[in-house]
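Action item from last week, closing it out:
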Amino acid sequence: MKYYLIAGEASGDVHASHLIAAIRQQDAAAQFRCYGGDMMAAQGAELVQHYRDLAYMGFIPVLMHLPTILRGMKRCQQDILAWNPDVLILVDYPGFNLRIARFVKQHSTIPVAYYIAPKIWAWKENRIRNIKRDVDLLLSILPFEVPFYQEKHGYHIDYVGNPTVDEVARTPSDSPLNGEIDGRPIIALLPGSRKQEVRDNLPRMLAAAAPYAKDYQLVLAAAPGLEDEFYEECIKMVNGKWLNGKCTVVRDQTFQLLQHSTAALVTSGTATLETALFRVPQVVCYYMKAGRLASLARRLFLKVPYISLVNLIAGEEVVPELVAEQMNVSNVRHHLASILPGGSARETQLKGYERMASILGEPGAPERAAKIILDLTKR
């Protein structure tokens, strides 16, 4: 059968590539075509357009590149109809993908499956109308989404497990951490993947952790696409100097770094879940300018009590969340002290991780998703 997949960012490319591999295991004659990235292409999908050509974040960048985005969307629409797949599989990226789903439903009978359901429980809940109208099959990787969609909105959704569980499980337990690593225990710094996130969070993380630099090595996980010079500038923002070599930068080794870490400072996102699954106590950090105003806006518009996946999955505060004006050097340092060995919160947090992991379930998310999608195509 023919499968057309669309992923609009690096994480979607990873998840979609694993789904392609799982589908191929169950359908040896499968053909794949995609809007996606290098990992999907490496699994044998014919890459029509790379996601980086259309991946613009924020109001101004999107507005500036709107003609490019619209041309890319039109090309995608025409390509789907011309290829006429047995199923269209959308992976996260709702701003683009829900528009594609609308078009496909208006102009064809191609079934639409959505892998990694849109996070409308956090914002833009009105998108449920589009999902009910245009999506035939919705697959979730977060267990708390099931009651949200089914009980609140009367729309069936299948929880297939979380692919991050699979990715962590696939990591060899003895993976070495390469780089200028010495014998001290490690405090990991994961300040995000976008430049503004890193600018806002990394200097504060470093300033908070600096007093521990004698006994702990501070190791930063660099994000793909952000150059070493950018990190050097951010690190120099700490008291106006380069911390005298007190921060080590590693690339393409986030999982290896977490395997070797004693504690972590993490900007909110999937990294908080990865850190928890490696059983590394953490402080979740997300600085915002105009902090008090941002906190007020969060209370008014964000529909969930937490920002980290760890706490959302557990349904309780397992890890501390320092957001907006709460994300300051003093608060981060206080919470970091509490999760280092001998700290008051370390063991409690580790027990919370176990509860969260039991809720997520066992590995096998791509395989379960593939089976359900194949059942859809047969129907």
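Closing note: The CA atoms of residues 165 and 371 lie 18 Å apart.
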